[in-house]
Specification:
Heat Shock Protein 90; globular; five-stranded mixed sheet; single chain; Bact_2-comp_sensor_kinase; about 625 residues; 24 helices; 7 strands; alpha+beta; Serine Threonine Protein Phosphatase 5, Tetratricopeptide repeat
Length: about 625
């Protein structure tokens, strides 16, 4: 959920009243006869409306687009697409915004000019795309576009637009919970923009205040909020002012001044409604819903939670949907409507699983590494060029030395590239491993919820005790990529006992380990649990008779063999069951486990085999067998 302000990298606004600027440009437009100048003026008028009237902004941008095509002015055509994209962004239609920004970028890349005006227009388009991707929680794409724009502005030495990018990059780092880097970029933006860009100064001050608020430094937070408010009141920017009032509400909540918080949120609501900012409204309604929930005003809280959820669904905001679903579950729980409480809890689990995915963090690291690497390469090439000019008339011996340095440099770069590739593979493996824990917890929590409803307090306590033990094991496992085979067996034993309780002893199980397997034999933690879960849910539970699951660990030469066998309905019948029932269980864990095995294979450079087979006796289905062959590894003591 956005609590800090981004803003689009647009053509710089004239720092006078927006309406006065529009009136002046309209007067010039009436007298202008040159077709290209008319198109440029229409684009400028469109830009002036960006803070006050998105409908007029889009209207003049569309006029500029039509005229630029008619007159074959491809540069003004790119600017028109950019302004149209901004208008759609304000309306909350991010897909159409990106489509128009992409059209602008394609034209500018096709022009391929080194002119400052064209290069900076490209940078503004990239920055605008970065804002949209950031709003969609696609932080990797946001950083990629922001860094590309920043490189252009560093070359052209455009301090004004650089300050805007500093602010936006700070927002992204804040969104991925890197508060130190976020504060570093916000302070850069604030210092750079203090005298040249009131808009960035106000936004960065608001963002710095939020960082201090999260750090519970309330006096410093209030100081920066007040600086931001003063700047916004002097320079018209309704969206920024609305965001600031949202931030003030969180300050007042920390101070336990709930009426002041409500007053701030009412001001924010009025502003966002006036400029049709659905994103800001989604935040405002959620803040109000939480306040009323804390006051036990469940009806009011329910009203604003539903408003926030409706906007979050319309704008496809994963975190906002997650927070709304969680609060709705709590509200219905307080209202003792367990059916709706459980419904929203399940929706919350789905959204939480999406939000907790670590893919964006992995891509962020990759993007940052690439950016730093490219910057270093550019500096080295420039230094090498200066050296060649300096020693061009030197003797042959100097040339031989330079050749030796070149060969050494190339070998060093190869080693560096291999190291980066290995680090990236390790990051991918750790990311996939981290995805297992939240997925498994969500499944267990859903099971506990159902068990409480179905079996009563005493059985629920037994279930929770076993679940607590399993969670302790899971926390221990999360510290390491590999664990001993005995620990894995202990976790599987505990998990199967939990599922036996959940399904009223629907099945029996047996886990065995051959005697030749050493106690310190290593296995990737929680690797087998998804396959065991699949055997239970889709194999033995649908059986009319009692089920049985058998897990065997064997060692053959330099391989650890893991075999999971069930006497369930089989693969084909399981697929039919999923097609028949709309609410069939869906699990990401099988796919995650498969990817874990693939990354392990890359990391260890050893063959790993996985096979899933339906067991048959002629036409009779006997069940399913999962066989995994792993390279034999040992835990270092």
């Amino acid at each position: 959920m956005r609590k800090i302000l981004l803003f689009l990298m647009l053509i710089p606004a004239i720092w006078i009243s927006a309406q006065s600027a529009v009136d002046s440009l309209l007067a010039v437009l009436k007298k202008e006869k040159n077709p290209n100048q008319i198109t440029a003026l229409q684009n400028q008028i469109s830009d002036c409306y960006k803070h006050t009237d998105p409908e007029q902004m889009q209207k003049f941008a569309l006029l500029a687009l039509a005229n630029s095509r008619k007159n074959k002015n491809i540069y003004q055509e790119s600017v028109a697409y950019q302004n149209i994209g901004v208008s759609f962004f304000i309306y909350g239609d991010y897909e159409k915004a990106l489509q128009n920004f992409d059209s602008s970028e394609k034209i500018l890349l096709k022009i391929n000019s080194e002119k400052k005006e064209i290069r900076e227009t490209l940078a503004k388009t990239l920055g605008s795309k970065g804002v949209v991707y950031s709003q969609q929680n696609n932080y990797a794409a946001a950083l990629e576009n922001d860094f590309r724009a920043l490189k252009i502005y560093e070359v052209t030495k455009n301090s004004l637009q650089t300050s805007k990018l500093y602010n936006n990059i700070g927002v992204i780092y804040k969104s991925i919970d890197d508060k130190e880097k976020a504060l570093e970029y916000f302070l850069k933006a604030n210092q750079t923009s203090k005298k040249i860009n009131p808009e960035t100064f106000a936004a960065s001050a608001s963002n710095i205040g939020l960082i201090y608020l999260f750090q519970n430094k309330l006096d410093q937070a209030k100081k920066y909020f007040d600086e931001s408010l003063k700047s916004y009141l002097e320079n018209e920017n309704p969206r920024g002012l609305g965001e600031l009032y949202n931030s003030y509400s969180q300050y007042y909540i920390r101070k336990n001044q709930k009426q002041e918080a409500k007053n701030s949120l009412q001001k924010a609501e009025e502003i966002f409604l006036s400029v049709e900012d659905k994103f800001g409204l989604s935040d405002t309604y959620m803040f109000l819903a939480k306040i009323y929930f804390d006051e036990d005003n469940l009806d009011k809280s329910l009203q604003f939670s539903n408003k926030s959820l409706e906007l979050a669904k319309e704008l496809n905001l994963t975190e906002a949907r997650m927070n709304a679903e969680k609060l709705l579950s709590q509200i219905y729980d307080q209202k003792e409507d367990q059916k709706l409480a459980l419904h929203h809890l399940k929706n919350y689990d789905v959204e939480k699983e999406k939000f907790d995915a670590v893919k964006n963090e992995q891509q962020r690291l990759k993007t940052e590494l690439n950016f730093q690497y490219e910057k270093q390469q550019l500096e080295k090439r420039e230094n090498a060029s200066r050296e060649r000019l300096k020693w061009i008339f030197t003797v042959l011996i100097v040339g031989i030395i330079l050749l030796g340095l070149f060969l050494f440099y190339r070998n060093k770069e190869k080693q560096k590239t291999l190291l980066l590739q290995k680090q990236l593979t390790e990051f991918e493996h750790k990311a996939l491993h981290l995805q297992m824990n939240p997925h498994f917890v969500f499944n267990c929590l859903a099971a506990i919820s159902a068990f409480v409803v179905q079996n009563g307090k005493d059985e629920a306590i037994r279930y929770l005790a076993k679940f607590s033990k399993l969670m302790r094991l899971t926390l221990e496992f999360s510290k390491e990529s590999n664990i001993t085979i005995d620990k894995e067996i202990e976790a599987l034993q505990n998990y199967l006992e939990l599922e036996q309780l959940r399904f009223n002893n629907k099945f029996d199980f047996n886990i065995s380990k051959e005697s030749n397997i050493e106690d310190d034999t290593a296995i990737p933690s929680l690797l087998l649990q998804p396959y065991v879960e699949n055997a239970i849910i889709h194999g033995v539970v649908p059986l009319e008779d009692r089920g049985f699951i058998k897990i065997i660990f064997r060692q053959i030469e330099n391989q650890l063999i893991c075999i999971i066998t069930d006497n369930g309905v089989g693969i084909e019948q399981s697929k039919k069951n999923k097609e028949t029932f709309v609410n069939a269980h869906k699990s990401m864990a099988m796919e995650i486990s498969k990817k874990r095995l693939e990354t392990l294979e890359q990391l260890e450079n050893k063959k790993i085999e996985l096979s899933i087979t339906e067991l048959r006796d002629n036409e009779k289905v006997l069940g399913t067998q999962v066989l995994i062959k792993l390279p034999l590894e040992f835990i270092e003591k």
